[in-house]
Amino acid sequence: MSTKQSVTETELAILDVLWKNGSATVREIVQAIYGQHKSSLHATINSLIDRLREKGHVAVDDAGFAHRYKAAVTREALIGDNLQQLADRHFEGAVTPLLMTLIDKVNLSRKDREAIRKIISGIK
Q: Which domain covers residue 86, as residue numbers?
């Protein structure tokens, strides 16, 4: 699934809870993010979930008393689209300069370098 609409940091925190747990109620999400439950936090998370649903990133199961939410987008799809948007904005859509900049600016471990070599050697 393509995810052309970006997400805020708090929306990403909600998605992270859903990716880790599979599904969750608003109360469970609030508890996971804030470590406590207050009605104001509940209302905020509920509004953010509504935005995520409008973006197509979250689905709802409303069969039970408390609605359960689950991610409708994978972490990989969201990251992939974010990286493509970054390439589009800064490198006219070219991915190679984006990757070269990332590799140049990040201190890669030997394990990371080997993993990258394996990925590159597997590209046909």
A: 75-121
